[in-house]
Amino acid sequence: MSHANRPIYLDNHATTPVDPRVLAAMRPWWEENFANPGSVEHAMGRAAEEAVEQARVELAALIGAEAREMVLTSGATEANNLAIKGAARFAASQDSPRKRVVTLATEHKCVLESVRDLAAEGFEPVILGVGTDGMVDLDALRAAVDERTLLVSVMAVNNEIGVIQNLASIGAIAKAAGALFHTDAAQAAGRIPLDVAEIQADLVSLSGHKIYGPKGIGALYVRRRPRARLLPLFSGGGQERGLRSGTLPAPLVVGIGAAARIAGGEGMLDAGRIAGHRQRFLDALLARVPGVVVNAEAAPRVAGNLNLTLPGGVSAQAIMEAAPGVCVSTGSACSSASVEPSYVLRAIGLDDDRARATLRLGFGRFTSPQDVDRAAVILAEAWSRLVEG
């Protein structure tokens, strides 16, 4: 497909394209040195191990961690499961009286399902609501977190509505009660400043393909001092300090390291440019479609996100079908198989009709001004045809 005919990609919350510099960094580890990083008995294996460890350093630097605190996983879903279930099962193995696990109704599905799964193991899930701005009420959180609480899990940036939670305050509430604090930072790392010490995090989940790296690789930060203790999800050869067994995919690890290094150096510059694209698009769309509503508009928002409810009773699905030249979504890619309206939008007070009329747009590093202008026209024209027809 020629560049001129290629769809305009505005779904960077679902996944990001691999940065060409990341691809270049990965290529030798597929073609020239394909050795297992665990095969340290020979030179090629040692070289692969060194590349993995350098990538671990680069990934840790993105969030202010130590390299030895980064446990490599297949992605953020595995990291979230390991953080929540691993912490709970370790506590149970020590006969801890702490049984409460607190999270939000707007969390990613893998967090919500992990927390709910723990009910069958004797834990007490507490799922707090949020305001119409998507933010947790800190007083409500403080009331829910007490001496019975083992873990608080709150995502840094929501994957649908883009709101940025007050992580430092949430971490302080968890610490005051002696609870662990976990945050799913898949949508935050490289987009906003993130320092594990400042937010008092014990566990932080990351994803390669959200930061212009490859799919199939992620990481879990596991605080070393004082140590956050976990039980592994499955058994194997004892890689990753015994927390995540399995042969490390050296090209993917190198890729997430390179992506993290680039994000650390360029992420804030990206954010300023991307915020400009977002506003340019919104201004252009509002000029053509009066009555568009930006959901959770009052809350702090990551630069690339727009979550828009369109007027006129037209479903978002119909608009996407009428505008195949623009790649947007109705919500989380991990929930797209569901015919139900987004549970995140319901949680912030949208009824089902409004939720079904809502689009999620994600602008990214490789979005151009021309993409922005064309997308606004294409979506507005699709909406007009549906309203009139």
Automatic annotation (TrEMBL):
Q: Which cofactor does it need?
A: pyridoxal 5'-phosphate
A single GO cellular-component term on record:
cytosol
Q: What is its EC number?
A: 2.8.1.7
Gene3D superfamilies to which the protein is assigned, alphabetical: Aspartate Aminotransferase, domain 1, Type I PLP-dependent aspartate aminotransferase-like (Major domain)
Nucleotide-binding keyword on record: no
- Biological processes per GO annotation: iron-sulfur cluster assembly
Q: Where are the transmembrane segments?
A: none
At the top level, the lineage of the source is Bacteria
Cite a single Pfam family from the UniProt record. Answer: Aminotran_5
Residues in domain Aminotransferase class V? 8-374
InterPro entries to which the protein is assigned, alphabetical: Aminotrans_V_dom, Cysteine_dSase, PyrdxlP-dep_Trfase, PyrdxlP-dep_Trfase_major, PyrdxlP-dep_Trfase_small
SUPFAM superfamilies, per database record: PLP-dependent transferases (SSF53383)
The protein's GO terms of the molecular function aspect are: 2 iron, 2 sulfur cluster binding; cysteine desulfurase activity; metal ion binding
**Which reaction(s) are listed as its catalytic activity?**
(sulfur carrier)-H + L-cysteine = (sulfur carrier)-SH + L-alanine
What's in the keyword line of the UniProt record? 2Fe-2S, Iron, Iron-sulfur, Metal-binding, Pyridoxal phosphate, Transferase
Q: What does this protein do?
A: Catalyzes the removal of elemental sulfur atoms from cysteine to produce alanine. Seems to participate in the biosynthesis of the nitrogenase metalloclusters by providing the inorganic sulfur required for the Fe-S core formation.
- Entry's family note: Belongs to the class-V pyridoxal-phosphate-dependent aminotransferase family. NifS/IscS subfamily.
State what protein this is by name: Cysteine desulfurase
